[in-house]
Every structure is written in structure tokens, then in C-alpha cells.
Prior knowledge:
It contains no helices and 47 strands.
Amino acid sequence: MKLTRVALVMLVAIVAACGGGGGAPSGSTVGYVPSPAPGASLSPQAVNVSVSIPLAAAQHRTRAYLSPNTQSLVLQLTSVNGVAIPSQQSTTIDTFAGAPNCAPAGSSLVCTGTVTGANGSDVFSVTAYAQPNGTGGVLSSGSFAAQIGTTSSTLSINNAVSLTLSGVITSLSLTASPSTLLIGSPSSANVVVNATDASGAVIVGPGAYTSPISLTFTNGTSDFGFVTASNPSPQSALALTAPTTSLAVAYDGNPSVAPGAISVQAQTQGPSGTLTSNATIAVLPATPVPTSTPPPGSVDIYVLNAGATGTGATVTEYASNGSGNVAPSRTLALSSSLYAAGFAVDSSGSVYVGYYDNATFTPDAGDEIDVYAPAASGNATPARRILTDPVSQTTLDPGVIWVDSSNRIITLVDTQLDNQGGLSAVGIYAAGANGAVAPTHAWNFDYTLGPYINGYNAGGQGYIGGLTMDAGENFYVAGALYNLNVVAGIFGASAAAGSGGVVPISRTIPSDSTTTLPSPPDLITGLALDGSGFVYDAQTTAPGGGGPGATVTGAINVFAPGATSGTTDTAPLRTISSAALNSTLPPSGTETRLPLAIFGSTIYVANQAQNTVLVFPTSASGSIAPSATISGSSTALNAPIGIAVATNGGTQHSGARVRPEKHPHP
Length: 666
């Protein structure tokens, strides 16, 4: 449903006429107005009413809320000279284009009718309906006052009438952004309350609601309170009598708050009963919850080594407690003709390698994913091979690969599946997929933010440097999207792994000086989540800047958890800037990468240019030395572009591209 803030402007021109209103515009018959008090001298008047509805798409809001979907108004005289009178005959005025009492007049649609009035100070009730002739849902109601003249034919009242209508709420929607607050850090989350009328339009005010909306915490503490522009002191509960654009939940930063979640509840009375909506805000530690360390030797480190060209690549395996110049426990020789790029390992130890068939690293019919058995070594033949599917017109783009806990394979594809139109998308393959098969589903980001996951437009190129998924099947992508001028950063989407089609971006960590995420996007070279959901990215300075031999600075940033927090343009919670992450550009002068993986409370990162594997605790911060380093001639490390860590019961892994791909898109 598209939200609209266009309000109707109601200008009421009132003209006194003699007697019963002969020749008056269409409307109900004028009734008798009894004297409101002994001795009063009142006579009924036929009051001509004109309603002017702006036809322009954007108008300044008036003092009243009149839904843009109003189809008719019902007016009735309720008091004269401050005294209530018995019920009078009401008047219905249709207010839609094509109604016989409506006609265009300049930039407005003018609709007319007649209502019973009386000489004196009159108050009329007004009710707006969603359908013609006073039918359908009630959208808003209220009253306006006007001074009505005597029977003098020369009297003309042409002042604008003060009109105040209140929106009738039929549904509530409550959201909070960000959806995560960190313990110990004073902060706030913006809260949006959308109350809609019976036509589905959001009530924008500035008139009041017919029933106030109460806001409460269902499990909050005194450390959290509601704050508005008019009431900056935190309140434990709040009553919204009218729409507001300034509302937040403030947290005072008390470090003794227990991890968990608070629920904000909005409640009001609608025409059919109580309406309720809730929003949950997670309250998490500022640092990851420590995870127990696996027994020595129960976890293995897998490294994809591209070598000099990407062909003839290898996968080497090391014990997680290894350090120094240690030889791999196993080496798997990969294709001598295809270019290895994507990499993953599943919980059983099966190895997944994404291959391109040429050095341009663009998706075509020759690309594939090969799956090697857990014990494969040497020149072993792949146990399975996923190929182009001609039926769904799916070609693989396997520069990044993720294998989830069910062994489903998630990678990039160009496909016609799920209405993707042959463009780049995330493809989800069933566990055990083999041969020329289609993904079970394909999804892409919301078209309004750019229809392509990778690809490029004039002056920029798309690129994906990391793809991962959390336990709630929310996807995270690091790199750049075909979005205006190719926006780089980390993006979250709450798309279940079994879904397809188009999904909106629900969180963006943009590349800028605040987040320190780099741009161009190929400098974001790794992406991983820890067990608490904190987001880690590995990044470098501009590869190629200064040419071969130039110094490149590497870093690992840590951001707050959550895939549905909107745009979080904030500084990293922590940054690891170890000298061991730095490097010197290789002779090609084109790139150096830092593929990243996390297992338990440990970060594993490979330095492509230095041929090292580095180990840090997830709580690390600042310029520190790694807790362990694998390096030396015996390691067989040779331009590592992918890293994975696996043990029985789960995996964490990272895929990597050798270089950004370029897709020509219209």
C-alpha cells in the first residue's frame, strides 16, 4: 500500500437564502430548526456548501485531516448560539470525480450541496466516508463553526470556515529502527506509528485521532522511555492524541541492563474493537557473548589458494591449533583450466569451489561449482558438479558461495527463475544438487534500490565481496549494488532461504567516512557473523593505488547485530588494525585480499599478498598482534583468496572473488 500525505482542502462558502431554500444545489431537504431557548428568534436557513478538492499531487496540509480517499461527506447542524439542538436532517455531499454535483474548477474539483442552518452562531458535525452517499467506512469526523446570517438577501458570508476533523483508526502499524540497542551505550530507536483509516490511507493530521493511541513497554525498565519533540523527558507510557513524526525510545545506557528484548506496544479503540501493534527492540551486549573453545584439533582451517593466475589452484587444510611454518594436513589440487574463485566447506567437510571458465570472471555457460568429498586430496575428481541450466536459463556467477546448516548452496546467478529477467540474483540450490539443475529459488533486492546485485553502470561497477546468512535466514551482502551511483556497503535483507522474487533491503551500512567502509566496493574483501550476530568485515585500502610494491593497509570492522535496522550510518563498535593485516601489492599491482571466517570466539583471516593465515579473538580491538599466525615455505599457502573453518555440527566460511566482475546492463 502506498502511503500518501495529500489532504483535501475544504473551503466552505455559506450564503443565506430565504425560506426553504428553493433552487438550492442537491442535498437533503431543509428541516425546521426549533428555538434553542425561550424567546429566541431563529429561522431555518438553506446554507449552500462548496467543497474544494485540490487536484495537484502535492498540497500543503490544512488544519484538518480529510483522507485523500474520501468519497462523501455527511454534514448536520448540532448547535446554535452555543446551545445544542435536537437532531436535524443531515446532508450528504459526494466528493469524487464524476459525481453529478462535482465539477473541475482550475486546479480543484468543486463539489456542492446544501445543509440546514439557522441564523446565529452555528456548529455543524462533519463525517467523512470511504464510499459515495455516506456509505463505507468512516474515515474521519469532527465539526466546524460558522456565523449564519438573517434572511436578508443582501447578506453574504464568505469567510473560510474553521474545520477540525479527527481520523478514525481502523488499523495500527508500529516499527522501531534500529531494532537493536547495545548495553552500556546511551542511544535511541526511532519509532513510527502508522494509523490507517478504513480506506487504507495513513492518517497524517495535523488533526487528532478520534481515539488516542496508548504506547507502553510490555517488559521494559526505567532505563527506557518514550521521547517526543514536545516532551523530551523520557516517559514510561505515552498517549498519542494526534499523528507525530518525532517519537523515539531512549535508552539511558545503564550497563547493568540484562540482555534480552523490550517490546513496545501501541493500542487504541477502533470501530470494531481494540487495535494492537507491537515492535521488538533487542538489547544486546556491546561485545560478543564468549563462546566455548572447541577441543584442540577438532576444528580445521581450509584455505583456497589461487596461485599466480587462479588456474591450478589448491585447497590446503590445517589444524586450528597450528601455528608457524606448519605443513598442511591435506592438499587438494583443483582444475588446471578453470579459474577458482568462490569457496565454502560444509559441516561434513565437503569442499565447494566456484569456477569461472575465463579470466574476465563474468558469468557464462562455462562456469560451474564443483563439490569435493570430505576426504578428497591430490587430483581427486569432484563428487558433484553444478552446471548451467538451459531450462531456467540460469548461468552461475560463483565468486561467492555460502552453504547453510541444511547444506543448501547459496551463490550468485544470472537467471530467468522467479521473474528475475536474466539479471543477477542470489540463487538457492537444494542440498545435494548435481548436474544442469535450476536453483530452487532466486531473489534480488527491491527494484527501487537497483535491480542488480552486481553489474555496473556508467562510472561504476557492481561487486560482491561477501555473502552470508544468519540463523534467522536473513541475508547479508558486502560490496556494491547497481543503485544510483553504485552504492557500496553492507546490506541486509530479511529473505528466507526458501523465498524467491524481489525483497527490500532491510539494513544498510553505507561506505563513508563514518563507517570507514571503503569505496570502491572491491575493497570490502570479507564478511562474517559471529554467534551473537555481530557483523564483521575485512577491508583494504585501494588496491593498485601506487602500483606494484605499494603499501596496503588492512582492517577488520565490527558492527552491531541485526538485519532489519534500516540505515545504520554509525562508526564501527571496534576496529582491528593489526600490522599483520597490512601488505605490499604483488607484481600485478591489482589486488590484495583479506578473506574472513569466524568460528566460536575466534576470527580467522587470510592475507593474500603475505601468504599468511592470522588468528584473532572476536573481542580484539585496536592495533594488536594476532594470537597465532600460519606462515612460511612449508605451509604451501599461495595467494589465499578464500578461507573456511569447519567441525562436526556447523561451519562458518567465506567466499572471495579474484577481481571484480563487470556486467553490461542497460
